[in-house]
Write a sequence for this structure.
């Protein structure tokens, strides 16, 4: 295993963390983190529960600001962005959470099209793109269902569809297979790998090492491990 | 985009955007009812204020242009002093007209208190001279001149009892506007509370919208539009009901104007309550926007 705190790819990164620290409630959760995600790269972020994977992911889409250091999203330092600029950047980053949330009063198709709706492009959502995407994640027949009617796997696939409908440059997934069985986790992984092959940068936070091994069989993925508040590049043991 | 264009876009609505906030049912009906009730009360506050204003103007105008001269003298000198006083008045600037009341007119004035068969000639009732005044009338100067030339004359320019009446009517007018403003403030408070409740109840919706890249303006507008339209439509119904109620109130006769029978609108005054719905809508817009911005500012 390679042990160092500087994890960078060559060239400009779509997401860059430079000497980032994050403290919460008086304690430092993350310390001296430097990570650069190159365009089209595939990364896993792993580590024990409570290590700060979700926190690091939130730093990567501007939901949290670092206590010190710099987070640059598409070359823009998040500290210099106002709230609306952060919102606009989020349209370029698709996010999937483990405990995915929907607007429960709207059908699945409308939830998937929500990023288009909030960006004023909802007219396009009625077109073939949405139908094609729903088919790609296998939810065509569930388009009219309400989110509470979906199974765990269907919710994760709907969340993935929602995350990528704007064709974002980056997809961040926080334990996307945490609530689904093995078959469904493989199906979700396949979708994420396909996205990466389309040129999307993918970062998946997971503590599921079997998922990482399965992915490495399909794609050239780098594995970042959080331990003792720092990020290290994991080696061939994963 | 200019503020007007933003407002027009906001009120034009966005069917898709409006759907992202779930319908709130009972809360919406309560907001509508409260806005309607407030508007109904505001119509009456305005009617009271405008009526008081009219009364103050009428009393002020009618009484300010008249004055009375009392000739208090022994019976054998009364006619002579009356003539002398009229002569003084004829040469007094600002006195447009002056005439002594006849015995019959004075008896008619006293009849409500002493009856119609009052033997006026046997009583030491002063002679009254009624004056109409115009600009330039100087009651102090006239009083001094009368004191020198007609010692039995006492000038009453009605100011002593006109002033408190006009003052009371003016205060009532101000009070009416204060009540209307308090109602507007109550609408703002009510809408703010309802908007805060709606924002708190929709925390998950807001979190999802932020996650998918919605701007604060987009999220705030979804709530602002909803509450503004509720306040606007509720106030419109309240104003219509209030105007109908005012219109159906019994009116006083022209020769016996009173405050209670005079509550209502006249002429262009009927248009004043039509300002209530847009004002309610604007207040709701500002209140909801402020509440939403404050709530959203605390989220990541």
């Amino acid at each position: 295993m390679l042990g160092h705190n500087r994890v960078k790819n060559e060239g400009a990164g779509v997401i860059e963390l430079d000497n980032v620290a994050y403290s919460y409630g008086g304690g430092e959760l993350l310390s001296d983190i430097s990570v650069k995600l190159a365009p089209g790269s595939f990364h896993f972020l792993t580590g024990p529960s409570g290590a700060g994977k979700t926190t690091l992911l939130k730093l990567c889409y501007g939901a949290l600001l670092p206590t010190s250091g710099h987070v640059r999203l598409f070359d823009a330092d998040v500290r210099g962005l106002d709230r609306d600029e952060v919102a606009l950047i989020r349209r370029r980053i698709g996010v999937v959470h483990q405990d995915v949330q929907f607007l429960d009063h709207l059908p699945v198709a409308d939830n998937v099209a929500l990023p288009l709706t909030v960006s004023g492009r909802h007219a396009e959502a009625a077109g073939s793109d949405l139908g094609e995407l729903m088919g790609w994640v296998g939810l065509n027949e569930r388009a009219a269902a309400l989110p509470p009617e979906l199974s765990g796997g269907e919710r994760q696939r709907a969340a993935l569809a929602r995350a990528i409908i704007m064709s974002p440059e980056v997809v961040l997934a926080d334990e996307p297979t945490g609530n689904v069985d093995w078959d469904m986790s493989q199906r979700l992984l396949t979708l994420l790998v396909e996205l990466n092959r389309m040129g999307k940068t993918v970062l998946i936070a997971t503590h599921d090492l079997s998922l990482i091994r399965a992915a490495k069989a399909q794609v050239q993925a780098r594995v970042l491990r959080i331990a003792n508040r720092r990020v290290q590049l994991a080696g061939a043991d994963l | 985009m200019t503020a007007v264009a933003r407002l027009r876009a906001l009120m034009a609505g966005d069917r898709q955007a409006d759907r992202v906030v779930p319908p709130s049912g009972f809360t919406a009906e309560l907001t509508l009812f409260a806005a309607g009730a407030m508007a109904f009360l505001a119509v009456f506050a305005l009617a009271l204020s405008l009526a008081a204003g009219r009364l103050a103007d009428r009393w002020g105008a009618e009484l300010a242009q008249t004055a009375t001269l009392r000739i208090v003298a022994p019976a054998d000198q009364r006619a002579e002093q009356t003539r002398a006083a009229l002569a003084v008045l004829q040469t007094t600037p600002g006195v447009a007209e002056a005439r002594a009341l006849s015995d019959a007119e004075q008896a008619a004035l006293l009849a409500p208190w002493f009856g119609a068969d009052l033997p006026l000639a046997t009583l030491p009732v002063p002679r009254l001279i009624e004056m109409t005044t115009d600009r330039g009338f100087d009651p102090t100067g006239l009083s001094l001149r009368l004191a020198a030339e007609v010692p039995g004359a006492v000038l009453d320019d009605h100011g002593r009892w006109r002033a408190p009446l006009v003052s009371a009517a003016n205060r009532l007018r101000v009070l009416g506007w204060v009540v209307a403003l308090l109602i507007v403030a109550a609408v703002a408070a009510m809408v703010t509370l309802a908007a805060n409740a709606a924002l708190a109840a929709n925390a998950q919706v807001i979190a999802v919208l932020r996650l998918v890249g919605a701007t604060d303006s987009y999220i705030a507008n979804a709530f602002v539009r909803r509450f503004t339209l509720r306040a606007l439509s509720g106030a419109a119904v309240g104003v219509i009901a209030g105007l109908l109620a005012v219109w159906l109130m019994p009116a006083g006769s022209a020769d016996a104007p009173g405050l209670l029978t005079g509550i209502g609108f006249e002429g262009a005054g009927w248009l004043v309550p039509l300002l209530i719905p847009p004002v309610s809508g604007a207040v709701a817009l500002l209140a909801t926007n402020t509440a939403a911005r404050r709530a959203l500012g605390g989220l990541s």
In short: Residues 58 and 64 of chain A are 6 Å apart (CA to CA). The first strand of chain A starts at residue 6 and ends at 7. Chain A has a mean pLDDT of 87. Residues 1-92+169-238 of chain A form a domain with the Rossmann fold fold (CATH 3.40.50.300).
